Amino acid sequence: MKILIVLTSHSKLGNTDGKTGFWIEEFATPYYIFKSAGAKITLASPNGGQPPIDPKSDTIENQTESTIRYKNDEKLLKLMSNTTQLQAISAVDFDAIFYPGGHGPLWDLTTDKNSIKLIEDFWDAKKPVATVCHAPSVLLNVKDEDGNFLIKGKKVTAFSNTEEVAVQLDKIVPFMLEEEIKKKGGIYSKKEDWTSYVIKDGLLITGQNPQSSAEVAKELLDVLKK
C-alpha cells in the first residue's frame, strides 16, 4: 500500500505580512494513521524541500497528540525537509493520493499544473483521492475523462464560509472555497463549525476541517482495503 501525500509550498498569507502553509494536524494525524496501517508514504510538494508550516497550526490551542508527536519525530522531520518535487512524481507508483490543508493550497496547488495532472491520472486509474479542510481546493480545476470538472455532480465538503469568517480570513483568501466548489458544480454540504464531517463519493473523499483529518484518513484506508 503506497500513499502519496502532497503538501503546499506557499507561505505568504495573501497581501498581508502574515505567513501560511500546511496545517500540522491535518498532515500529522493522517500520516500516523497511514503509517500504523503499514502504508509506505511518499511526501511531495510543488517546489520540493521543506513545505512551510502555517504558524497558527503550531500554537498551543491547536496542539493535538499527533502534532506533538510530529514535532518530536526526528525521522519524519528529516523526511519533511526533503519532499520530492511534484513534477518528478507519477501516479503509477502509488495506490492513493492525499492532500492536507492549511491555507497554502489556495494559492499554489489549486492551479498547479503538475498537481492537476496528477489528480487526473489517479482518477483515470480509478485510485482514491482524499483531501481535507482547504485542500479540496486542489480539485477545483481537475477534470474527468469527459472533460467535465471532476467535482461536478459529486458530493463534497471543505472548509466552510462560516469557518473562514470565524478565523477572520474571509477578506484575505483568494476565494471562498465553499462558493467555488458550488460554482464548479460540486454538491457541497457541511456540519456545524469545527465538527468532524467527511463525505465519500465513490473514490473521492473530502473532509470539512482539521477535526475531520482522522476520519478522512480512515475512510481512505477503508477504500484501499476493498
Keywords for this entry:
9 strands; seven-stranded mixed sheet; alpha/beta; two-stranded parallel ribbon
Question: What's the structural blueprint in terms of helices and strands?
Answer:
Layout: E1 2-6, H1 24-36, E2 40-45, H2 65-71, H3 74-80, E3 84-85, E4 96-99, H4 104-107, H5 113-124, E5 129-132, E6 155-156, H6 161-166, H7 177-183, E7 187-188, E8 198-201, E9 204-207, H8 213-225
Parallel strand pairs: 1-2, 1-4, 2-3, 4-5, 5-9, 6-7
Antiparallel strand pairs: 8-9
Helix pairs in contact: 1-2, 1-8
- The secondary-structure class comes to alpha/beta
Question: How far from one another are the termini?
Answer: 12 Å
Rg result: 16 Å
How would you describe the oligomerization state of the chains in this entry? Answer: single chain
SSE string, helix = H, strand = E? EHEHHEEHHEEHHEEEH
Principal-axis shape equals globular
Account of the protein in words:
Helices cover 31% and strands 15% of the residues. The chain contains eight helices and nine strands. Helix 1 (24-36) crosses helix 2 (65-71) and helix 1 (24-36) runs parallel beside helix 8 (213-225). The two termini are 12 Å apart.
In short:
31% of the residues lie in helices and 15% in strands. With 226 residues, it is α/β, with parallel strands linked by helices.
